[in-house]
């Protein structure tokens, strides 16, 4: 039996197309077959507090529930480093930070510049800067000033804006992006 060269090339192409399709179904069945992705089993965050040097990598949510021990660890790390005061960090802020890391495709520590701020610290900072709000969302445990190594501030800023999860402040000269879970708004600072 003889095959023409044209027929052999078509068969070879067909083989590779079939192999590619089978591989796609094997490695990405949910996407190829249109099924929803499997539910997340766990969410974790990794922080480095730039003022205290402390770092954590902790699960804060698993199997549909928030984990008290993970939340306590995050509350402690995000405390007002000047006074030692702690506040419960809003779960919506944690979800924004988690989604930010997922969008940036990084597992690096989030570098925390400011998390919770006591009223005393906020008042002191207001005396030295026009950019500190009278009732900052930092005082409610609803805001964080962050940067992420290996990612530019501009990229972090764009990702935060695209999520539309709250307020986003861009402070390129100070080297951080402010993210909060308040109303959706944005601004540029120093």
Q: Please, what is the average pLDDT?
A: 87
Order of helices and strands: HHEEEHHEHEHEEE
Amino-to-carboxy terminus distance: 78 Å
Structural class: alpha+beta
Overall form: globular
Give the number of helices: 6
Secondary structure tally: strands: 8
* Amount of helix: 25-40%
Give the biggest beta sheet: 8 strands, mixed
Strand content range: 15-25%
Poorly predicted sequence stretches spanning 5 or more consecutive residues: none
| C-alpha Rg (nearest Å) | 23 Å
Widest β-sheet, arrangement of strands? 3-2-1-4-5-7-6-8
Written overview of the protein:
With 190 residues, the protein is an alpha+beta fold. 38% of the residues lie in helices and 22% in strands. The chain is built from six helices and eight strands; from the N terminus they run H-H-E-E-E-H-H-E-H-E-H-E-E-E. It has an eight-stranded mixed sheet. Strand 1 and strand 2 form a beta hairpin. The protein is globular, with a radius of gyration of 23 Å.
